[in-house]
Amino acid sequence: MLTNYEQEVIARQSERITKMRESKDYFYDFLGKQIIVKQNVFYPSADTKLLAENIKVNANDIVLECCAGTGAISLTIADKVKEIYCSDISPYCVENINENVKKFGLTINAYMCDLFPSIDKKYDVIIIAPPYTDKDAKDVVEQAYWDKNHKTTNKFLTEAKNYLNANSRIYLCWADFADFNLIENLFAKYNYKYKQTVESEYKGKKYRVYELTL
Question: Closest Cα partner for 20 from 66, 69, 68?
Fold first, then answer.
């Protein structure tokens, strides 16, 4: 049985999905960059900004952003790292990422895949804001929000270890309506060490950024 809070969240997400399907391309101010947001792509919300502001990277880092959407986070750190890659399961998102890369003249490789590109590469930093809500999604547009049984998050935590260099770290964002205890139990289940780096509230919803290590 869903709580009133969870029902409210899903109703709001449904409205946003409808707007995503109907919207024309537009520009969105993300940390000082006027990024392109295309039809069928989730715009970078407060949690995206929180995640982007709480990632620590070094000049020699090789970085992967999974579930990248518009590629907003990668756009903000691309000039601070050695190499950066984006992945998303949605072809709309990959097209959107490539348009933003071209707009800003950056070197970011975008791949359409389920989390991890099929390339011979390991990463110093992996970034992800997975879909939070445990609900069936009928297509890749709905998958921006909904993920039945948190399949994407479980798959990510299962496989990410195979793509990490020594002393690597993962930055993951999560929401209170998806249950902080649930995600922290998953970290323990898959044998990650973790720490909460920040918690912030936006329009009545709380978000946390976690840093995971092996």
Answer: 69
> Phi, psi at residue 71, to the nearest 5°?
85, 15
Question: What domains can be seen in the chain, in order of their start residue?
Answer: 4-213 (3.40.50.150)
Task: For 136, list phi and psi in degrees, rounded to 5.
Answer: -60, 140
Distance CA(124)–CA(61), nearest Å, equals: 5
Exposure string over 112-137, b if 16+ CB within 10 A, otherwise e: beebbbeeeeebbbbbbbbbbbbbeb
pTM of the predicted structure, to 2 decimals: 0.97
What does the pLDDT look like over 119-144, one tens digit per residue? 999 999 999 999 999 999 999 999 99
Two tokens, residue 27: 């520009």
Q: Which residues, other chains included, contact 184 with Cβ-Cβ below 8 Å and sequence gap of 6+?
A: 194
